[in-house]
Amino acid sequence: xxxxxxxxxxxxVADIQDLLLSTPDVEAFLEELARHSASMxxxxxxxxxxxxxxxxxRTAGTVASxxxxxxxxxxxxxxxxxxxxxxxxxxGTQVHIPDFEKDNTWPDYNxxxxxxxxxxxxxxxxxxxxxxxxxxxxLYSDRPNAFDQAAVQRANDYVGQASKGLQLAVLIAQxxxxxxxxxxxxxxxTVIDVATGIIIAQNRCTQEEAMELIKKASxxxxxxxxxxxxxxxxxxxxxxxxxxxx
Length: 246
Description:
- It contains eight helices and five strands; from the N terminus they run ααββααβαββααα.
- The chain has 246 residues and is of the alpha+beta class.
- A five-stranded antiparallel β-sheet has the order 2-1-5-4-3, with helices on both faces.
- Helix 1 runs parallel beside helix 6 (149-203), helix 6 packs across helix 7 (207-221) and helix 7 packs across helix 8 (225-235).
């Protein structure tokens, strides 16, 4: 007989892979991940809300949420600059509050969050590819003791699987940005090369001398080389320059 826990892990991995394939960017992936996370821990009798907190340079914010209520619940602790989810991100440790009405870890925050009808929370840190950012999965419930020992273990297992998808999404985004930057640099180089050729033809000078003229104009006008080069091409009657990538 198949191990139920193994079967669930396999399902989670497949779900995360599907999210990666079906979403256009990291932002959309995170939104879908938050909704998927909430559904994984909700039941017909009790809804669970999910927010994903990202902390960079000690500044935190919600980058995705399963609903508007989830986002609002995250915002409460940002107002106090502390709370279970922020602590989970900062320290890289799980925080579980079974019942806020019986807990006094963050007195002011506890009072505020119970005023929103919240009773329990489970915050699990997300490992990220580098140490400049920290993230956490925040699961909220209006019911006390909503996350028993089995649910806590499931949440940790889930984050372990989902974090691989998150890390892959971040790496894809980084590579996409690198590719975009490279493309922009190559396009700029093409315009500059064409402008250099025009100056060489008009002034019967060397390539080095033509480049120095473009640099001097760029410095005097306090504009980028590409802008000067584009103006030279347009003044010579040339249209928009396109770089052909094969």
